[in-house]
Amino acid sequence: MPARRCAAFTAAVALAATPVALAGPAHATGGDAKGRAGAVVLRAGLDVSLLDKSVHVPLRASLNEVTAPASAEETALSVRLDGVGQGKPFSMLRADVATSRATAEADEAVGYANLARARVHVPGLPLLSLVEVEQVTSEARCAVGAKPVAKSNLLGTVRILGQKVTLSAGGRTRITVPGVGEVGLDLSRTETTSRTAAATALELKVSVNPLKLNVAEVDGTVTLVQATCETPKKAAAKPEEPKKEEPKAEKPGVKPQTGDEPTENLAETGGSATTLYLAGGAAVLLGLGGGALAVTRMRARNRA
Question: Residue 12 in contact with residue 256, Cβ under 8 Å?
Fold first, then answer.
């Protein structure tokens, strides 16, 4: 076999026998990234102005404020402010039911808050409730692969500064009580983005001037029954291990060609180079056999 053909044949055989690495499809790694969720029954941010002193006393308080994973069920909130009511604590909220709950898993985060038969007071108004509610709930749910959902429900009546009010979703209700002040109320406010949700059952903008218990003015915000969530992050993707392609097994009885045998039209006849050698050998044998038979006949004639 010529050296050039031998080298080419050796390289071809080596390439065919080498496993081929194929890139596989990507799949999730199943990371443990979790979402976020929170809930609160009441949150207050108020500035209290005193009569006998030209000062402002901040009031920052919350009840059953939790972040995932957690839950709380306290039904009362009392606060104490210097200079208000001779330093005695006053009840800011009392309820029959006050629940907040937050959970966060790899595929879903949920915030939930519920308040039933509750009364909320502010400094300077110990007998008159800022707001009374029968039952309100809020829920925020963020699941992987789904749009975040936020919703709030209010059942029964609502009273602001002792007055029964008719609430309208999507707008602000204003209640004014002469000699007491004004409260602006937002009902069932919800916000959603591609990955977050927030639901607030009631938000009150407070501006009252009770002139009792040494309190001149109370301004700020009181939030009731709020839930929030953030969708868990999707697990990162990585490529699978490359798959190796096994070399194809040769068919029994078939030898690789060396490059010197005639190969034209072998595919059409179904033959091979070995077939050609076998056919040539048979022809030679037939020729020798025919010649021997002719010599035998000639000798027989001469004897006769």
Answer: no
20 contacts: CB under 8 Å, gap ≥ 6: 244, 245
pLDDT digits (tens, 9 = 90+) for 131-150: 999 999 999 999 999 999 99
Instruction: Enter the pTM of the model.
Output: 0.65
Q: Which residues pair with 111 in a beta bridge?
A: 102, 140
pLDDT tens digits, residue range 1-52?
Answer: 544 444 444 443 343 343 333 223 323 333 347 899 999 999 999 999 988 7
- 194 burial type by CB count under 10 A (0-12 exposed, 13-18 middle, 19+ buried): exposed
Task: Check if the beta carbon of residue 152 is closer than 8 Å to that of residue 167.
Answer: no
- In the chain, % helix, strand, coil (3-state, to 5) comes to 15, 50, 35
Dihedral sign, Cα of residue 218, residue 221, residue 226, residue 229? negative
Is the Cβ–Cβ distance between 252 and 258 less than 8 Å? no
Name the 3-class secondary structure at 12.
Answer: helix
Q: How far apart are CA 203 and CA 190, in angstroms?
A: 11
- Alpha carbons 276 and 297: distance in angstroms, whole number: 33
